[in-house]
Amino acid sequence: VTYSPRKALGLPVANDRAHQRFCSFVNDGWKFENVQIGRSRIGVVLEKEFEQPRSDGRFVLGVDVGSSTLAAATLADAATSQVVKQLYFGRDVAVRQASYVKRRSHLQALVDKGSYFAKRSLERLKRKQSNFVKTRSGQVAKEIVNLARRYNAAIAIEKLRNVRATKGKISKNGRKKINRIPYARLREFLNSNAEMLYVPLKEVDAYHTSKWCPHCGAVNNGHLSTNYALYSCRCGMIVNSDRKASLAIAVKSLLERTSQMHHHSDFVQFSSRRVPVNGLLRQNEVGLFSVAVQHVNQLTESHRF
């Protein structure tokens, strides 16, 4: 490390797994210009140019990031207008997060009373929680990208900004759950894994993805008042909110792709009723093309007819 024109300092680097990964990246063509020196670690920003993967394939994998389930995914087939798979990823994250919060609250109460040992334990627990969330986010992102790669599918995720919940809009417990969602971290892992494996990744507008009904095309309030995990529609459809939202994200990605290709006669069919899906579009986007949504029984939890 050069810190003046004629002075240099040599720093020892542990030949651990992180260093081995760094060497493998450099050998694979990654380049770096910036090095950050911390208290016990050296951080390096790696960069590499990738070809832009094609996003006009047959399959789209919609991913909804939530508080109870880290990622709910729906694999939609645009050619046959069917849902191929619906999966949950990282359902253990919310449970572990709640456990960490409970333990931290207890330790914080002891710290407020002046306990030095509780303060040290609290610091260790915070690091442990951060490492767990980072590790699981990376693992979930890798599973999602591998699934998309297996079907040669493009990944679609909501374009969310300022995810943190504010006072007045939601209950205190609900606000805490939302604020614990590692959305930005998961998105970063998805970006990096998708680039390395040449998997298309697209962020779609989050407009009405949680309120739109895939059975009748209506836009409703969304969650049941008695059960936040369920979505209910006036047409009689009751379905898991996360699974329904992931389907909406996949369909919306197909709609945006269709509008960009200017194929006004194209049909993205995911409904036996062949209803329009204008509820998923903002007013300035309505009328660009004709689309419909085909309901698939795999999505439905129960019906009221």
Helix/strand structural class: alpha+beta
Distance between the termini: 72 Å
Q: Low-confidence stretches at least 5 residues in length (pLDDT < 50)?
A: 263-267, 272-276, 286-305
Give a short account of the largest sheet. 5 strands, mixed
Strand count: 12
Radius of gyration, in angstroms, nearest whole number: 23 Å
Give me the side-by-side strand order of the main sheet.
Answer: 7-6-5-8-9
- Quaternary status of these chains? single chain
> What proportion strand?
15-25%
Helical coverage, percent range: 25-40%
Question: What integer is the average pLDDT?
Answer: 79
Q: What is the global morphology?
A: flat
> How do the SSEs run, as a string of H and E?
EEHEEEEEHHEHHEEEHE
Number of helices: 6
Provide a descriptive summary of the structure in words:
It contains 6 helices and 12 strands. By secondary structure, the chain is of the alpha+beta class. It is flat. 36% of the residues lie in helices and 20% in strands. Helix 2 packs antiparallel against helix 3 (116-150).
Short structural description:
With 305 residues, this protein is an alpha+beta fold. The protein is built from 6 helices and 12 strands. Helix content is 36%, strand content 20%.
